[in-house]
Every structure is written in structure tokens, then in C-alpha cells.
Amino acid sequence: MWNDNHQQVVDSITVISCLKTGVSGQVTAGLIIAKQDFRPISGKNNEERGALSFTLRDASGTVNVTCWGTAQFVQQIAQRFHINDVVKISNCNVLEKQDTEQEKLFSPTTSVNFRISVDQKNSKIEPLTYGIDNFLAIQQKPVSDDGDIVSLDKLVSAQTSYVGRFVNCLLIIKTTPSKRTIVTKADRTVTCCEFEVMDNSKEVLRLVMWLESLADLTYGLIPKQTILFLTDVKVKLDSFTETLTLEGNTKTIITVNPDVPSAHALWSFAQKLPDDILQPSIKRVSKGNTSKVPLSSITKELTIEEIVDSEPDSGIVSAVLTSFDCTDSKRSVSKRCMGCNKKVPGLCAKAECFGKDVVSFYDFMVSLTDQTGTIDNVKLTGESAEKLIGVPVTMFEAWDSDTKSECMDRVLLERYKVYFTTFTMGSGIWLQVQQVDSWVPNIQSVSTGA
Hints:
Elements: E1 27-35, E2 39-42, E3 48-58, E4 61-70, H1 71-80, E5 86-90, E6 93-96, H2 101-106, E7 114-119, E8 124-127, H3 133-136, H4 152-157, H5 159-162, E9 166-173, E10 178-183, E11 189-198, E12 204-209, H6 212-218, E13 227-238, E14 243-248, E15 253-256, H7 261-271, H8 304-310, E16 314-323, E17 333-337, E18 343-344, E19 358-370, E20 373-381, H9 382-389, H10 393-398, H11 401-411, E21 415-425, E22 428-438
Parallel strand pairs: 4-7, 12-14, 20-22
Antiparallel strand pairs: 1-3, 1-5, 2-3, 3-4, 5-8, 6-7, 9-11, 9-13, 10-11, 11-12, 13-14, 13-15, 16-19, 16-21, 17-18, 17-19, 19-20, 21-22
């Protein structure tokens, strides 16, 4: 279907990279590689309208498309077309890409600097009925280079660095994907699909697909036999299970069983694993204790190198606070339900906790450094954080940004005597700070002979 210049010559179809803004009557076609959920929009005179976004790909590139029209028209498109369908768009409106923060966070990254708008009155979208082999040939080619892949052991060993970021991962499905339906606080029904994944580092994480299209794509895939190339999957720290998770959302593109050497190698690796690898393996906390313990029971002084090597249950370390950010309230204060004593995003969703108070508490992730190294996975919470900052959490929440910055400048890069317990998450050791004291150097007297 394409000549050497990638210019479409059949039925006047223009390949994605050759589309022009401001030109009417253009026709293009592509493979749907990502699809968002239907979005209702309030129209004039209370008319029910809607929008649907998806991403198209051909051999020349990728582009984001948004369909607009009555709710019925857009829902028909949503129900008719799915990921891996090949569609043709006639009289598409090619517009300059909106380089907004919202688009960067919630839309797939594309190869072109424009987007396509499909209008109910002027445009037409339909299945492509010829030449689809050209598109199916790229179905198993990832949109990202496999050199950009981040391994799971790297994510786990540096969790505070990756939480909230989008990464590319090459993974094998470890447990059977399961679907569930959730009703949100806004009374919206959401379907998700979740399962465990792993890579050749043998690290295991939970993967949750929050879009219906991604849930449909992954549900029914076979564990140990299916490889996923995830482009822009989000790294999150699940506050309920206290484990690192991966989240497929509106920005994520998934290539199933990608035809690249690294995927073939991962598949071969998986076939050599024992069958019991298919059993769920993620637990909330696999070792240690994050609750308050008597300081009298913590006596052994250790360096950070010794902590990492020996993984003690508790200890004391003299170290510098090298990472501490109290300017972002979302990363410094969390909420806890007084009914079940669990961390919650807002009101507790458990029926038995209805009417129970939700209280704020300090909840920092910090880093400690001494002469032997640095450990990033350090939780500083509750009374220990309050002693360091000097005020209760309710007063801290009322501080303005300048006061919080002054606090950060005061405590950062200072040396402290830190009492801690440990727990593990994945394969990495974490410290739970039990108390922070000012560091007093141990100065020995030196006598001089007469």
C-alpha cells in the first residue's frame, strides 16, 4: 500500500506522517493501539454529547484521535472499534497538537506534532476492508525501543525514585488475569483487570489495568506464555497493600507478544521456570515490623553498608538526612481511618468503618547517607517525624510553602542518630524510623605526656 516515500497511493489514503494541518478532505487509516473510555460531555440545551479518544498507528508513525458528537454516535464508535482493529477515517480534521500538561499526563506519546479530530457531521470512521495485512504486520512491533526498558529489580531497589513516573517494561504474565468491577465515589462504574507480572530479574509486581480497553485486551491471556511490552506504564505505591504496583491507564500502550529479540529471550527464560511460579507471591509485608517498638530493645549500632548486607530486624545508624521533602503535602501527610487503622485516600470505603474519623499523620519517604553508602527506602512517620519537624501534623498542614521550605532547609543535610526497625518489600529492605535524635560526636580525650 505504500511506495518508497510512504505516501499512500490506494484510494487516496495518506499515511499518518504525511498528513497536513489545515488541509480538508484528507483520508487516513491505521491500527488502533490504544483506546480510552467514553467521556460524557454536557452540550447546549442539555443535549447529551460525548467524546472518545484513541491512538492510530501505521508504518510511518502514530497519532492521537478524538471523536466528537452526540452521546449515541460516540458510544456506537466505542462499542464497534477496539484495540487491534484497523480503521479508515475520511475527511479527518488535522489540528496542531495541544502541548499541555494534561495531554502529556493522560494521552499516549505520539510521533507527530498534530492530532486528528473526527466530527460527527463532517467526518466518517469505518473499518478498513483492504490492505490490512500492512497494518497487522506492525501489530507485534512495540512503539518504543527495547533499550528504554526498566527492569523490575531496578524499580524495586529504587522505589522512591520511580513512584509517580511512567516507564517502559518488558514482562511476562505470572498469574491468571482477573476482572473486577468497582463503583467509584462519583458513582461511576469502572472495570479493571489485575494480575502479577515478572521479568528475567525474577522480581514480581502487581499490574492493574484501569481502562476497559486494556482490561479487555489482557483478560484471558495465558500466564507464562504471554509477553507484554508496556509503553508508559505508571509506577505507584499501593497504600493499602504497601507494595509497589504498575498501573495501565490512558497513557499506556501495550504490545502483546512483541516480535523483538528481548521478548523472545524472556519467553525462553519463562519456559524454564517451575510451574509453581504461577502461584500468587505478593504479600503485604514479608519481614519485620513497622509499628512502634520499645527503644530499649534497639541497641546495635550499624553502618548503612552493614544494614544492606545483613538486613537486621532493628538497629541504630548515625547518618545524614540527604533526601527530605516537606513542601509537597501529598508526599508528607497521609490519612488513616480510625476504624480499621488503615491508610486511606479519603473516607474509608469499608462498610464497617462508616462514620469513623479519618485523621492526618506524617508520612515521609526519606534517604539516609553515611560514609559507607546511602539507603533510600526509609519511612519517617508519626511521632518520629513530629519530633524532627517540631510541630503536630495539624499545625504543619496549615503552614504556607515558605515555612515548609524553611523547615526543609533546617533539617536537610544534618546528621542524626536514627533508631529503626526493618521490613522488606519485594527484594529490597526498608527502614521504619522509630526515633530521630540529634547526633552528638563521640570525642575521645587525648592526654599529652609531660
